[in-house]
Amino acid sequence: MAIKGQKFKTYSEEMKAEAIRLHAEEKWTYRQINEHLGIQDKQRMKKYRENVSERQLS
Predict the structure, then answer these.
(1) Residue 9 has pLDDT above 70, yes or no
(2) CB distance 49 to 39 below 8 Å
(3) pLDDT digit string (tens) for 12-51?
(4) Which of 58, 34, 35, 28 is nearest to 47 (CA)?
(5) What does the pLDDT read at residue 1?
(6) Cα–Cα dist 7/52, whole Å
(7) pLDDT recorded at residue 26
(8) Sign of CA dihedral 30, 36, 40, 44
């Protein structure tokens, strides 16, 4: 739940693609990727992966 006035961090498309590449090709864990790229939201990797899958199908 968002708090009034809360700022959300946004990530570039390049960073999202790199996160997916690290997981798919390099077999990094989500924890390693989050720490390496500074991604704070633990659920974000799942969202990135779903978005990449949708793009590949279209």
Answers:
(1) yes
(2) no
(3) 889 888 988 998 899 998 889 888 988 877 677 677 777 7
(4) 34
(5) 61
(6) 25
(7) 94
(8) negative
Terminal-residue alpha carbon distance, the chain: 32
Q: Would you list the DSSP string of 1-58?
A: -PPTT-------HHHHHHHHHHHHTS---HHHHHHHHT---TTHHHHHHHHHHHHHH-
Q: How many CB atoms lie within 10 A of CB 23?
A: 17
- The half-sphere exposure of 55 on its side-chain side, counting CA atoms within 13 A, is 10
- Joined together, the tokens standing for residue 35 give 């720490």
Q: Report the candidate in 51, 43, 57, 42 with the shortest Cα–Cα distance to residue 20.
A: 51
What is the arithmetic mean of pLDDT over 8-15?
Answer: 84
